[in-house]
Amino acid sequence: MAETQNTVTTPGAVSPSGATAATEAVPPQRGSAPTDAVDLLAWSVGAVAERLDLTPSTLRTWDRRYGIGPSQRTEGGHRRYDEVDIQRVRLMAQLTGRGVPASTAARVATSIDAPALASALGPGPGASAVGQHVAESTIEAIVSSAAELDADGLARLYQRVTRESDLISAWTAVLAPALRRIGERWREGSMGVDSEHLASELLVNELRSLTQSNRSRVAGRRRVVLASADEEQHYLPLVAIEAELSLQGVGCVFLGPRVPVDALLDLLGRTAPSVVFLWASITRPQHDPLWQTLVAAERPTTLVIGGPGWPEHLPEQPSERVTVRHAESLDEACAMLTEALAPM
Length: 344
Description:
Blueprint: E1 8-9, E2 25-26, H1 45-52, H2 56-66, E3 72-73, E4 79-80, H3 83-97, H4 102-111, H5 114-120, H6 127-147, H7 151-164, H8 167-188, H9 193-213, H10 215-218, E5 222-228, H11 236-247, E6 251-256, H12 261-270, E7 275-279, H13 289-294, E8 301-306, E9 322-327, H14 330-341
Parallel strand pairs: 5-6, 5-7, 7-8, 8-9
Antiparallel strand pairs: 1-2, 3-4
Helix pairs in contact: 3-4, 5-6, 6-7, 6-8, 6-9, 7-8, 7-9, 8-9, 9-11, 11-14
């Protein structure tokens, strides 16, 4: 009995202009299950380009350089994309569209297994896992751009991250981990201090642009003092808090780094704000003069402290007029500050 050749007809892909990609008969792969058991879909380069709104040359480049390409082959030797291949291409396009370098995007796209790809590119419980991959790839992109002193690339990445999700999520999942990784590489000697400074200053610019865009909402409502402790030069967390509070309609008096305790106390005695955030990344002394100074506070004050410089166990409240709270994260700090502002 003569063997009948099974063929698979690829559904036509509809382009934005309404044109339908050519339908091709593709024999099943040798050793594969019969087509009546497995609905094998095989797509040519042109059909995938129309389906994903990419150019064929882009697909060929990603295939040649990064291995993001078709995994199937017809008996006639023509390479074809299956659905998993197309999902990898779509993820590659999403990542590069976010500013992630193509090499990094390709590493992420090829490291995710087929079930995770399927749930990532549509609603489902796997989306959070892929979100972690996307966050990691963005972190890598930020670190790579900093190492290469690519200011334009860094600025684009920061803008995308802060615009595509809420600021606290962006800070927690991407921005803070990226800065920590850059700092670690600087300490290891694999990255220069110039890269660390560039990454920090460009992020300051981006966060301040968010604050500036909300200036009309906070005009005349500067109710929180933001400062870094004496001898503390780092102030980026203050800029992040200022930006997040501006989004909530709360304005700040931004004092910045190296604010002596007595100057802070003097400010509290002369102006209306009675809610303060104080940052410290440098380890504070065991007998911190801050607590003795706060005893002289003349009005009810809430002091929220943050940063790794503060001891795990704080002394007793320095005064009945001063409430001290310790925030472990940006989210906690902003919540504590806004709670202190709420009317009793």
